[in-house]
Specification:
It is a single chain. This protein is mostly beta strands. The chain has one domain. The protein is built from two helices and eight strands. It has a five-stranded mixed beta barrel with strand order 1-2-3-5-4. The longest helix is centred in the N-terminal third of the chain and has 9 residues. The protein is globular, with a radius of gyration of 16 Å.
Length: 130
Amino acid sequence: MRVAELRGRVVCLAEEMHRRHEALLPTEHEHLWGFKTQDGTCYTLLRSKFSEALFLDERLRQKDLLLKAKLFPKTQVIEVALIRSLRNGVVQDLYYYCDVCAIKSVSPEVCACCQAPVVLVEKPMSEREE
């Protein structure tokens, strides 16, 4: 298994295959979220603690993203380890934050400590953080 850094966007793989290959697409379908890189390669996203936000938060699916992910041999399946975004060519730290507890998390779900809502934070990475 190798670790890859991928740049691209989250896509519904069923819709992408319909668009690319005229695959049949039911009018109503469940989204099968994947990641489409800049060169057009599509990967299936495994759902995990670190990728959960991609499945739950529509705002992330609208962003240009940088993923650090494990690429499983002989597959197009990835397990996300880290999510960053790109805004105007600048890498952004991307996380959820609880103002009440001052806790960062990787999930848009309520704070694990106080159960308050968390906010999405996107801020430029400093050179030390990269």
